[in-house]
Write a structure and sequence with these properties.
By secondary structure, this protein is mainly α. The chain has two domains: about 100 residues, no CATH class; about 45 residues, no CATH class. About 65% of the residues lie in helices and about 10% in strands. Helix 1 runs antiparallel to helix 2, helix 2 runs antiparallel to helix 3 and helix 3 packs antiparallel against helix 4. The mean pLDDT is about 80.
């Protein structure tokens, strides 16, 4: 039932994002697809009741909670910025919308232990568009360290 609820919820959410012209709809759809794929894989490989508990905890905490607290919250921030500026010019509205997305930082690191604060757009590019960013100091590929709070 949880699996079916998630699929229905994701479908409804994607339809809503399409209606409001959310600029990160495609990336969000990829996130949903990955969550469902990973959940399906985990469920198919359950061997014991304890295994079920552990895997459900993983799904709920690492994927769904992270998804809701970080990516779904971005939809609300976008709507707020978008509605706030409905009386302004279209170009001004787009700039402010992008600014609201850019304020959220995602923490990345590298082998030389330098901390890199990346924007939401940069984070999405790395995750879903195979963008590869390197540290200016050590020239090594950055890796995801932690979510914004």
């Amino acid at each position: 039932e949880l699996f079916n609820y998630m699929k229905e919820h994701f479908d409804n959410e994607e339809q809503y994002m399409q209606e409001i012209h959310y600029p990160y709809l495609n990336e969000h759809k990829i996130m949903h697809k990955n969550i469902i794929r990973d959940m399906s894989y985990l469920i198919q490989n359950i061997k014991t009741t304890n295994d079920l508990k552990e895997k459900l905890y993983t799904i709920m905490s690492e994927w769904l909670l992270e998804h809701i607290l970080h990516h779904d919250v971005m939809i609300g921030k976008w709507i707020k910025a978008h509605n706030k500026n409905t009386k302004e010019e279209e170009t001004k509205q787009e700039e402010l919308t992008e600014d609201s997305q850019e304020k959220l930082e995602f923490i990345y690191s590298c082998p030389c232990k330098t901390t890199h604060a990346l924007s939401y757009n940069e984070h999405l590019d790395i995750l879903y568009h195979n963008k590869n960013l390197k540290c200016k100091n050590c020239q090594q590929t950055l890796f995801y360290f932690k979510n914004p709070i």
